[in-house]
Amino acid sequence: MDVTGHTSSGSRSDPGQEPRKAASIRDVAQAAGVSYQTVSRVINSHPNVREETRKRVEAAIEALGFRRNATAFALASGVARSVTVLTSNTTLYGYAATLQGLEEAARAAGYSLGVKLLTPEDDLDRTISSAAAEGGGLMVIGFDRLAATALDRVPKNVPCAAIVEAPSHGRTTPRPAVWADDREAARAATAHLLELGHRTVHYVAIPTSAGTRRSEGPRAQGWRAALEAAGITPPEPRGGKGWDAQVGYDEGRRLADDPGVTAILCGNDDLALGVLRSLHHAGRSVPGDVSVIGFDDAPHSGFLTPALTTVRMDFQGLGRDAFALLRGQLEGDYQPPAPTFARTHLIIRESSAGTSA
Questions:
Q1: Pairing mode, if any, of strands 82-87 and 137-142?
Q2: Cβ neighbours, 10 Å, residue 47
Q3: Whose CA is closest to 299, among 89, 92, 87, 88?
Q4: Are 39 and 29 in contact (CB under 8 A)?
Q5: How many helices (H) and strands (E) does the chain have?
Q6: What is the DSSP string of 119-167?
Q7: Of the four listed, 132, 166, 268, 326, which is most buried by Cβ atoms within 10 Å?
Q8: Residue 86: which H helix or E strand, with range?
Q9: What is the per-residue pLDDT for 67?
Q10: Minimal CA–CA distance to 179: which of 149, 142, 137?
């Protein structure tokens, strides 16, 4: 944790006595006979401090009751210990879990975290300027078109990092970013259904962060690649209009009417929830008549009937990795570790099975 500063020790003064002044970092430095920069290095666990010096500083900290204070650090160093997250959603599982990872990493590093919710009616440039004016840095959860557009508009002089959809091969992101390889995950999920004996796999899509509604995101691209590698012409993808169960239900009703549909990959677990319900209403059993696979492994997916086969995504890990990238821009002496880009995993449950068709 990279912090320095000062605050009160919390002890009470005797009645009639002047309150004890809080120990500052310079008080510690004077008591230990070192510079305040050395005290800062000890507090931040920097390796280039002699052991004898470290013990002397730690003893002075203990004797004076010194406590670090993030606000004092910001005033003294010019580093604003705050981050503002720009996102269009805080309730869908992927967004909420990513935000949780960001908050955990920010809190561990002594940063405060604020959230600005983007809406289609926003003046994006004004919203970004307002967020940047609060100091610190900006974090963008860029899973959708609105947030991806906001990321493109963040001024170059504003510290910024993002969590995004996997970029197309050969393309780079406008700012430092992390992502999961959901293109490969969708390919593997589709290949699994083909290995179970299904002749083709239909896809209910989530909206993409790039281009028009007809543009394909990485999950759709992975689904298409698996079918084409097997010599199968991909059927027309469905959905792309939203992320929620209602969209899944509406698209599932249309798919349920086609007896040739035996396998469906959904762009997220909420869509899969709607698809499962529509198949139930149509009298088609899962997985007896139709196999269904979701995406994200939301907490409810293992408790559906049948339990949902799905792709597990480490959204919290993405949030933590992205915060490290931003922290590296905010703190000159902080070297962020390489992003982990945690692998995705296909979690096989009850909603997928072989077919005799």
A1: parallel
A2: 5
A3: 92
A4: yes
A5: 12, 11
A6: -TTS-HHHHHHHHHHTSSEEEEEESSHHHHHHHHHS-TTS-EEEEEPPP
A7: 268
A8: strand 82-87
A9: 63
A10: 142
Residue ranges, the chain, pLDDT below 70 = 1-22, 44-47, 67-80, 170, 210-215, 339-342, 356-357
pLDDT in tens, 305-341: 999 999 999 999 999 999 999 998 888 777 777 766 6
100-158 pLDDT, tens digit per residue, is 999 999 998 889 899 999 998 888 888 888 888 877 899 999 998 899 999 999 998 89
Q: How far apart are the first and last CA of the chain?
A: 59
Kindly provide the residue ranges of all beta strands, DSSP E only, lying in the chain, ordered along the sequence.
82-87, 112-117, 137-142, 160-164, 177-178, 202-205, 238-239, 263-266, 291-293, 310-312, 345-347
Task: Specify which residues 143 forms β-bridges with.
Answer: none
Would you say 176 and 237 are in contact if contact means Cβ atoms under 8 Å apart?
no
CA distance 239 to 2: 46
Distance of alpha carbon 339 from alpha carbon 254, whole angstroms: 41
At which residue do the structure tokens 């970029």 appear?
167
Residue 25, helix vs strand vs coil: helix
Provide the sign of the torsion angle of the four alpha carbons 78, 79, 81, 84, taken in this order: positive
